[in-house]
Amino acid sequence: MGTLPVPIVITQHMMEKFISILARQITQETGIECIEGSEGLLLEPGRIYLAAGGSHMVLRKSGQRVTIGLNDGPPENFCKPSVDVMLRSAVEAYGGDIMAVILTGMGKDGLAGSEILAQAGGRIVVQDQESSIVWGMPGSVANAGLASAVLPVSGLARAVRGTLLDVSARGKS
Fold first, then answer.
1. What does the alpha-carbon distance between residue 112 and residue 133 come to, in Å, rounded to a whole number?
2. Digits of tens for pLDDT over the chain (173 positions)?
């Protein structure tokens, strides 16, 4: 497939001191540069952006450019960074032209953002209960009827790849 035709944005509930370690590990495992989101950083296709610990990551559109903003607002769903905060801002920046993947995790962070994304026409894929350590986050989205697919962790990469191939094909036509 070559270079990713889109940026990938990740919000992970993790202590601040471990974010840079996770970014390095993602880069090593995928071969795709993963960097910690910082204020004003331009989103570019072919890169992975990881939410900084201790701040909400928001996406801001100005003309054709989308940049990262850091928001020091209160935790949402007991989380900071919060998936809901990121998804709301992503829909503001990109409309429904988004694919969200909700993985194992406690609570329901991502549910409210997924509702907004689904209303905008976006695609949401969640990890199934059997392969999840904790099915809170993906389960809340699946049980609300918002998931386009509920897949084992082993099937998620195929679903993302299929969507990326569709994006790539649309860009060439």
1. 22
2. 457 899 999 999 988 899 999 999 999 999 999 999 999 999 999 999 999 999 999 999 999 999 999 999 999 999 999 999 999 999 999 999 999 999 999 999 999 999 999 999 999 999 999 999 999 999 999 999 999 999 999 999 999 988 887 777 776 54
Q: Is 77 left (phi over 0), alpha (psi -120 to 50) or beta?
A: left
What interhelical angle do 111-120 and 136-143 show, nearest 10?
Answer: 40
Tokens representing 46? Answer: 């072919």
Q: Tell me which CATH homologous superfamily contains domain 8-172.
A: Methylesterase CheB, C-terminal domain (3.40.50.180)
Domain ranges for the chain, please list them.
Answer: 8-172
Are 45 and 6 within 8 A, CB to CB? yes
Degrees (nearest 5) of the Cα angle 122, 128, 133?
120
Phi, psi of 80 (to 5 degrees): -155, 100
Compute CA distances 90 → 1, 7, 15, 31, whole Å.
Answer: 24, 12, 23, 24
